[in-house]
Amino acid sequence: MSNNRQNATDDQLDGVAGYMQQAKQQALKNVEQVAEGVAADTLSEGKLFEIATSIGDKRLEELTVEDTTCGYCAVGCRFDLYSDGEEILAARPTAEEDAPVNGISTCVKGKFGYNFVNSDDRLTSPLVRDENGEFREATWDEAYSRVVEGFDRIRDDHGAESLSLIASSKATNEENYLMGKFARQVLGTNSVDNCNRLCHSSTVAGLAQSYGYGAASVSTEDLEIADCILLTGSNTTEAHPVLATRIKQNVRDGADLLVFDPREVQIAEYATQYSRIKPGYDAVWINGLIRHIINNDLYDKEFVENRVTGYEPEEAPDHEAADDREERVDKRETGFEAVKESVQEFTPEVVEEVTGVPHEEVVSAAETIAAADACVFGWTLGLTEHSHGTENVLAMANLAAITGNLGKPGAGVSPFRGQNNVQGGGGDMGPLPDNFPGYQDIADDELRAKFEDAWDCEISPEYGYYTTQMFLAADRGDIRGMYIIGENAALSEPGVNHAEQVLSDLDFLVVQDLFVNETAQYADVVLPACSFVEKTGTFTNTDRTVQMVKQVMEPKGDSRPDWEILQDLANRMGREWDYESSAEIMEEVNSVTPIYGGMTHERIEAEGGLQWPCWDEDHPGTKRLYEEQFNTDNGKANLQAVGYSEPAETPDSEYPLSLTTGRVLYQYHTGTMTHRSDGMMQYTPSDFVEVHPETAGEFDIESGEMVTIESRRGEIVVPAQVTDRVGPDTVFVPIHFAESAVNRLTDEEHLDPAAATPEYKVSAVRISPADGTAEPIEAADIEAAGDD
């Protein structure tokens, strides 16, 4: 048979073969019609239904059906995926008891977003650069040899710490555990990190300092039973639609919803109170709430006295001079009394001047929270992606603690995580420069000795570079080689122009991904990995629930699971890894990670998920943190006084507007998966900029017109959407498109001092009309499926 004949599809045959095929299809169609007619005339409706069911069951027998966990956001929705071995055919609700977070709900991405698996540009073979600098296909053997040679050369010439690894929050827990182990045991570097650095690392730092664990204290069901919910910096309906549905239902049933955000996002339409805030000053309005609650004796005295440090009811007077307050704060930076004194500067006048929130709205929100029996405090990146994001989270932790909203049903802190496994893979599994799995400090001699023994290697007590620091270190020549797994750093890093230059100047770059994305274009070797539908493991969702991910179809082409690639490379670099399955890796995880001590694949499968901490196989998991004590040395919440920090860059006469960034419903992160879905692209085909009508009038901009946005670091051109969702001093651009790459405008240098998170949410910009027009993108279209 000729190659042309082999490549022709069934409906493209020509000549005699085509004629015979058409005749056969018509005959079959005629037979089917006659048979259907005869059956309809002679059989009862019940019998017809019975036959149809039998035929359907028979066809289902030919499909692979697995209950699995969604690979988009970290809500952790579970459902059945149907595959014929070649593609994903459908996603349908699984039994409600097997889906503890979502029940029968899914969002549009989890329901329909699988075209990427079979995309024409899916990476199915290793690629290496030839002598002309072009990619060519290679065998795995050649690709592995190139990787080993490149890493060994840099390590020999510049030392192991000149290598770094960026792990993947898209990959499973088991794979992320091996990424951290590979960095330390095989490469010999502590410079390993992940995308958590770009989003919620300030959440982790702030909550860990205050309460002991850098994670949500609640279960998802607490959103349904809370009397009050405060949301800030969260476009919940678009970024976490299933959680938004639960919140809105609770509001319909009588709960109060308070929304503080620079944009009037759709969830604000359901709010008891929406307050527009200036981006970058969250600690100011939060401290204003705390001040009102404390000064009016609305705080939970019993909780504060028994479960919070630094409470001195007989010592501190109600009112002190400003100088005395400053002296007390200098002496005592932690504890209730320090917080009480530090918030006194956040008067109604200061809060309104700095943040734009009127005094009556501060009073209303504070008293609503104080009056509630149980309140959940939820946030996403609007609170954290700042040069002082950790301070914002510390302030929110103070607010939750003084109102006693921790450790009881319907109350707690709930940072909604973005990527599917950023909680587990991005934190719990320890691909971090300062922590082993389970947030065990590498500087602790006893903990380090445990991992040196378990991994048979020496580990430096010195912290490595965070992701954002890696790019600055590479600019200085301190990092020479990178291994980037499942992270599109060329688009996601702040200051994309700088990131591109760093990637192009590296001595050696290995990228492991599903596609030759923007980052892979700079690589020396590209390794084809598998998607979550092609492998088995676990993800940990936003409320600490560890759930199974099951293989639904075989890997595409010659792609391989991340853990198998890591094992192959480790063995070629002198180690003897012999894992036969991801279940074996999880057994190693629970042997060295106390909070995962009771977790096995068998048990997770049998119990439909387990929430950490789960100390041993007899432990039921932990539904709600801090019911009895905090995970601190003294078992109490360590509140910390938080002051007033400006954003690193504020508007001025040259750049008069604040740019903030975020997500939209029909796209996901840098678009690696969603851009390959025609249906998704019809709803949001490009980035856009939201401009307030007053601002649009001032700069002569109309909806649909192309707009140039400039910062001190670069410029982009996107279509305008004139809307009052944003305030007059703010513009908003999504993060999802390489063509417009909003991170060309953001700042790579000014990082949160505790967490090294960049300031994505505030950049000083100017706007002007550009040549060309585009169709306006309506907010209603973008959020049309928000209730799914």
From TrEMBL:
Q: Which PROSITE patterns match?
A: 4FE4S_MOW_BIS_MGD
Pfam short name (any one): Molybdopterin
Source taxon at top rank:
Archaea
UniProt name for this protein: Molybdopterin oxidoreductase family protein
> Molecular function (GO) terms listed?
4 iron, 4 sulfur cluster binding; metal ion binding; oxidoreductase activity
Concerning SUPFAM superfamilies, the annotation shows: ADC-like (SSF50692), Formate dehydrogenase/DMSO reductase, domains 1-3 (SSF53706)
**What PANTHER family does the database record attribute to this sequence?**
FORMATE DEHYDROGENASE H (PTHR43105:SF14), RESPIRATORY NITRATE REDUCTASE (PTHR43105)
Composition skew (Acidic residues), residue ranges: 778-788
Keyword Phosphoprotein appears in the UniProt entry:
no
The segments labelled Disordered in the record are 769-788
According to the record, the signal peptide region is none
Swiss-Prot/TrEMBL keywords? 4Fe-4S, Iron, Iron-sulfur, Metal-binding, Molybdenum, Oxidoreductase
- Classification via Gene3D superfamilies: 2.40.40.20, 3.40.50.740, ADC-like domains, Dimethylsulfoxide Reductase, domain 2
Quote the InterPro entries the UniProt record gives.
Answer: Asp_de-COase-like_dom_sf, Formate_Dh-H_N, MoPterin_dinucl-bd_dom, Mopterin_OxRdtase, Mopterin_OxRdtase_4Fe-4S_dom, Prok_molybdopt-oxidoreductase
Look up and give the organism this protein is from. Halohasta litorea
Question: Which cofactors are required for activity?
Answer: [4Fe-4S] cluster; Mo-bis(molybdopterin guanine dinucleotide)
Q: Give the 4Fe-4S Mo/W bis-MGD-type domain ranges.
A: 63-121
